[in-house]
Write a structure and sequence with these properties.
The protein is mainly alpha-helical and about 200 residues long. It has one domain. It has a three-stranded antiparallel sheet with strand order 1-2-3. Strand 1 and strand 2 form a beta hairpin. The C terminus is likely disordered.
Length: about 200
């Protein structure tokens, strides 16, 4: 069992982060690093100086919720326990990685802020945490160097990655959250990006 060395309170975070990374074809160690950086808890609300709030386990910023409201997604959904908040965060990270300008780490740090000085601080810490999680993942899971193995080609589905898939619905008390379609990326094989790509990324 790959999670036996984790404290019980971290197991949900790790399981949900890896699951969400695989679903949205995002580097698993980046999702784990963001989850560690954000260190939120279910039901947690943190007020920001600009009037927005960071909500739930992944401290999802409420400024993004106006776009998600038409899908029935509310702040309560983002604040809830379980993996749904991690799915939304991985979907959002995927959008940053695919659509934003800059290197891998700048794009990933846009989850926190696009303001250069805040992004730089977050980015530096994110790289350290991502390297640590890459070691942790490689010690427990089979990983593949996609640079050598050859990555899958981008499919038409990946062009839709920055938009919320129409199958996403807000979690209801009476039924489980609908699964989102799996999107494969050029860097994805077996759901994990190799540490070679992570370590060779420009600062």
């Amino acid at each position: 069992m790959p999670f036996v060395d984790l404290p019980p309170q971290l197991q949900e975070r790790v399981v949900c982060s890896i699951s969400a990374a695989v679903k949205y074809a995002v580097p698993a160690n980046i999702v784990l690093a963001v989850a560690e950086k954000e260190a939120g808890k279910p039901g947690q609300w943190v007020r920001n100086s600009n009037g927005t709030h960071d909500v739930g386990p992944m401290q999802f910023n409420t400024s993004y919720l106006s776009d998600l409201a038409r899908y029935g997604i509310t702040a309560d959904d983002v604040a809830a326990a379980g993996c749904y908040a991690f799915d939304l965060a991985a979907w959002r990270i995927r959008g940053h990685l695919k659509n934003d300008k800059g290197d891998l780490w700048t794009k990933a740090a846009n989850y926190h802020s696009r303001t250069p000085r805040y992004n730089a601080v977050y980015r530096g810490d994110l790289r350290v945490k991502a390297a640590k999680w890459a070691d942790w993942l490689e010690a427990r899971f089979v990983t593949v160097d996609v640079v050598k193995a050859g990555a899958v080609s981008v499919t038409a589905a990946s062009a839709q990655a920055s938009r919320l898939p129409s199958s996403l619905v807000a979690p209801k008390k009476s039924k489980p959250v609908t699964s989102l379609p799996r999107i494969r990326a050029t860097w994805e094989i077996s759901g994990y990006v190799p540490r070679k790509l992570i370590r060779n990324a420009q600062p």
